[in-house]
Design a protein that fits this description.
It is built from eleven helices and five strands; from the N terminus they run αβαβαβααβαβααααα. By secondary structure, it is an alpha/beta fold. It has a single domain, classed as 3-Layer(aba) Sandwich (Rossmann fold).
């Protein structure tokens, strides 16, 4: 049985111990307006204090609602929220790519979707280094991916897969929700339909399988054969995201 209150306290202690051991000061994380970043922000506020947490909204042809929900979270927990609009950066980049060749929208679709989280993560690392220089305390970039997403490779290499500390990467979606309830994450955000804010589709639409089914697979619960195969294909097809094949001399 998952004890959300106990796990919340253990995660908070995990953060505190790591920061104390390595003489660290604060955390920077992207606030998407969804449950995962809200829960992670709440955990860091509880562990380090709101004054040591910096959230950042990173719109890039995004919905205004996501930015509004991010502000709801920062106001509720009291941490600083910065906004770095990456729309013009993306547009300038696309303009440079157009000089390479005349590509169709369908050809660039996947590249366009994945470059955005890479811009976003670069910005988070820039801000972490900047905050470290300004405050004299080392700031880390906090990851916000959960176990269900990671299991099926629903993340961008070099984007949201990059971070310095992970606090919910071993929690499934339902467990993240339970932690969020303990931390009193505003319901509007906690129960919001998960989406990447980039493709105008929900996560489950893009994956072609529900998070409940993914969690059932992870927990070895009975699934119909078609759904089981879908989850397995997603998991096996994303193995390249988890490790880099490296040639070793003498092997």
């Amino acid at each position: 049985m998952f004890d959300a209150e106990k796990e919340t306290e253990k995660i908070v202690e995990f953060i505190r111990e790591y920061y104390a051991k390595n003489n660290l000061g604060g955390a920077v994380l992207g606030i998407s307006g969804g449950k995962d970043s809200a829960v992670v922000a709440a955990l860091f506020v509880k562990a380090l204090g709101a004054e040591n947490v910096v959230g950042v909204t990173l719109p890039c042809h995004s919905k205004d609602e996501d930015k509004e929900d991010a502000k709801l979270i920062s106001d509720y927990y009291g941490f600083k929220l910065l906004n770095v609009d990456l729309t013009s950066v993306f547009d300038a980049f696309k303009n440079e790519i157009s000089k390479i060749g005349d590509f169709t929208e369908e050809q660039t679709k996947n590249s366009d979707i994945n470059i955005k989280p890479r811009f976003r993560m670069s910005t988070c690392y820039y801000l972490a280094a900047l905050m470290s220089a300004v405050t004299g305390k080392t700031y880390l970039v906090a990851g916000t991916s959960n176990k269900s997403e990671l299991f099926v490779g629903y993340f961008t290499k070099g984007g949201d897969s990059v971070h310095d500390i992970a606090t919910i990467a071993d929690l499934t979606v339902s467990e993240v929700l339970k932690i969020g309830e303990v931390l009193k994450v505003p319901e509007k955000v906690l129960y919001k339909v998960p989406s990447d804010g980039l493709s105008n589709q929900s996560d489950e639409d893009k994956l072609g399988v529900t998070y409940k089914s993914i969690e059932m697979y992870i927990n070895n619960e009975e699934l119909d054969e078609e759904t089981k195969n879908k989850v397995e294909r997603l998991h096996n097809g994303s193995r390249h995201k988890f490790s880099i094949p490296t040639y070793r001399k003498g092997e």
